[in-house]
Design brief:
Strand content of chain B: 15-25%
Mean pLDDT of chain A: 94
Structural class of chain B: alpha/beta
Order of helices and strands of chain A: EHEEHE
Low-confidence stretches of chain B: 264-271
Order of helices and strands of chain B: HEHEEHEHHEHHEHEHHEH
Number of strands of chain A: 4
CATH architecture of chain B: 3-Layer(aba) Sandwich
Bound molecules: thiamine diphosphate, iron/sulfur cluster
Shape of chain A: elongated
Shape of chain B: globular
Low-confidence stretches of chain A: none
Strand order of the largest sheet of chain B: 3-2-4-5-7-6-8
Number of helices of chain A: 2
CATH topology of chain A: Alpha-Beta Plaits
Oligomer: heterodimer
Largest sheet of chain A: 2 strands, antiparallel
Radius of gyration of chain B: 19 Å
Radius of gyration of chain A: 13 Å
CATH architecture of chain A: 2-Layer Sandwich
Structural class of chain A: alpha+beta
Number of domains of chain B: 1
CATH superfamily of chain B: Thiamin diphosphate (ThDP)-binding fold, Pyr/PP domains
Number of strands of chain B: 8
Largest sheet of chain B: 7 strands, mixed
Distance between the termini of chain B: 65 Å
Number of domains of chain A: 1
Helix content of chain A: 10-25%
CATH class of chain A: Alpha Beta
Chain lengths: 76, 271
């Protein structure tokens, strides 16, 4: 059985906190951070990183190209 | 927690990368408002040009409107046009340099108001270009005034009580008009509000560029888009508003896909 696990890396300074990725994430991984970046935006981050499956839905809807997605295939 | 961080670090390795922005997307921070559809579409254009390996051949023509600075964001050649004139400028570039991949990029105020003549005549001549049309039903850049594409009843800064057909006329479905013109090889209407829609829109943009290679007429891609600042909604609310109000009037899907365009027999232009 193969279990896929993923992670995202957010370019915090580019993020404008639009929240479209939070809405697009099927696994409720993402959330806007309570703190802000240098331009005053609540940037997105993995609030529950264990949930991410690397589906890349968040990066697909991001208008500012801030999200990179990684996916690991764990074979048991 | 330490174990989770260790796991994340293990996943974040070059061999596991499934998505990163195209190298053609410059590092500049875009000037668009948070959540603006222009950013998504411009990311897709960069990805398509990269995947087709046509960076050196591509020339984009930018409009007047919020996307006026699009030339800052994709690492290809660009030409800025006067308001509404992008299809005329793209026509000249393509006719002078037929080996180039030429596309125009316009908002609805640019393409369907001040530039209606250039738009319709470029397509009617069957210019061998790609035209990208970002329809957010409003003039975003100048402060959210009514556009020809504004919906009936839609509140804008110049229709504070909603668009009234008795005074303001009807929302213009210019893409439907364009599909009637014999010069149009491929006409489609897409959106970028969900991951699935983004993937479909990317396929449509790719197809439009492929059609330009066939030399068989204009490929026209409308993206039904949001303008959260003009609509005075959050980006997430804007997507919902667009689904509920824009899609019934501007239904998504292909309006024209000339079979002859696929075979390259539709009209071969001499170089
Ligand atoms: C000749 C001329 N007339 C009017 C303007 C003012 N103007 C600038 S952008 C714009 C409309 C832009 O709306 P749209 O094309 O829908 O683009 P958006 O900003 O919504 O992306 C107008 C009327 C101008 N710059 N030049
Ligand atoms: S890759 Fe998929 S699961 Fe992971 S954060 Fe993005 S949308 Fe959520
Ligand atoms: S005003 Fe509207 S179209 Fe212009 S950048 Fe802002 S959201 Fe985008």
């Amino acid at each position: 059985m193969a279990k896929v696990s993923g992670a995202v890396v957010v370019d915090i300074e580019k993020c404008k906190g639009c929240s479209l990725c939070v809405e697009a994430c099927p696994t409720l991984t993402l959330m806007l951070n309570r703190s802000v970046n240098n331009r005053g935006y609540h940037f997105c981050y993995m609030q529950i990183p264990e949930n991410c499956n690397g589906c890349a839905n968040c990066s697909a809807v991001c208008p500012d190209s801030c999200i990179s997605v990684y996916r690991l295939r764990i074979v048991h | 927690m330490a174990c989770v961080i260790e796991k994340i670090n293990e996943i974040i390795a070059p061999e596991n990368l499934v998505y990163a922005k195209s190298p053609l997307t410059n590092d500049d921070i875009m000037h668009y408002c948070p959540g603006c559809s222009h950013g998504v579409v411009q990311r897709l254009i960069a990805e398509v040009i990269e995947e087709m390996g046509i960076q050196e051949q591509s020339i984009g023509v930018t409009p007047v409107g919020c996307s006026v600075f699009a030339y800052k964001y994709i690492d290809i050649d660009w030409q800025e046009a006067a308001h509404g004139r992008a299809p005329a400028v793209a026509t000249a570039i393509k006719r002078l340099m037929p080996e180039k991949m030429v596309f125009s990029y316009q908002g609805d105020g640019d393409l369907a108001a001040i530039g209606t003549a250039e738009t319709l005549h470029a397509v009617n001549r069957g210019e061998n270009i790609v035209m990208l049309f970002i329809n957010n039903a409003i003039y975003g850049m100048t402060g959210g005034q009514m556009a020809p594409t504004t919906l009936v009843g839609q509140v804008t800064s110049t229709t504070p009580f909603g668009r009234n057909v008795d005074i303001n006329g009807y929302p213009l479905k210019i893409t439907d008009l364009i599909a009637q013109l014999p010069g149009a090889a491929y006409v489609t209407r897409q959106s970028v509000h969900t991951a699935a829609a983004v993937r479909r829109a990317k396929k449509a943009i790719r197809k439009a560029f492929e059609i330009q290679r066939l030399n068989c007429g204009t490929a026209f891609v409308e993206i039904v888009a949001t303008c959260s600042s003009g609509w005075k909604l959050s980006p997430v609310e804007s997507n919902k508003w667009m689904e509920e109000n824009m899609f019934p009037h501007y239904p998504l899907g292909d309006l024209k896909d000339s079979k002859r365009a696929d075979s390259g027999l539709y009209r071969i232009k001499s170089k």
